[in-house]
Write a structure and sequence with these properties.
This protein has about 300 residues and is mainly alpha-helical. It is about 70% helix and about 0% strand.
Amino acid sequence: MSNLEIGKRIRTLRTEKGLSREAFCGDEKELTVRQLGRIETGNNLPSLAKLDYIAEVLGVPMSQLIDEGLLIVPKEYLKLKTKLIRQSIHGDEEKIHQREDIFEDIQERFYDQLPEDEQVAVEVLQAIDDVYVSENAEFGEGLIEEYFNQTLLQTEYSVNDLLILYLYFLSNAISFKRNDDVLKKVRNNIVTIIDCSDNTYMHLLQRVLIAIVLYQLRNEYYEDISVIFNFLREIMMEIQDSNLKPTVDYFEAKYYLYGEKDKEKALQCYEKAISGAEFFNDINFKNRVIEERKEEFPEL
């Protein structure tokens, strides 16, 4: 069964129920009008979550809409996606090229057969890299415009929601844009996440939290930033993974230096970041932190 056939079937059942796309999607929390349009025209294969919603609204079993075997995501693709989520770049040219090769591999071997949510995940991961490497927020604008409002409606975040939040806060840190209401809403939702059973999800959550810290530091907005640092440490302890600790120590140094004006604590955090980067053999990050410490503490 092709994407077009699936889309036609969904459209036929929807029109038989007398529902417009707008009425079908309701508050667009689960499915937006644009997403439904792409599904019905065969441009996207709906994800399992969206199919579940569509079947519920139509009042039919999911098996009437699609062969569920089509929704099985290749394990090899998932391994590549996990590597993209978990790997830090820190300006390392070799890692940047490795990630470019992974994106190319996904595009050539898997992308066209992936459900829409996985295609979006790939696009957002690519945009995150582009924004980070180029320091140009324009690479994320289209995806943020398309998906961010839907993410804001959520109180529990999926992997894709976290990716969109990561892109949003990174992009707005780069462009020095600030929205306190959005920050507070997202932060209040995030710090209630307690299920640490999925290490990759929690690793991605850490990256979102780090992006929030970067966003607050660059916008010189220090309110409740300590809450984020504490939550990051809790996650690292819970999942027994301290790979991101040098990054957290580095940003905490910035916070103490500029937010608290406490040079002694800032210097301590710099030392921890340098030691941690050395422990994990992240030479590029270690050298970067050393250079920034020299700039901020020239007397040393």
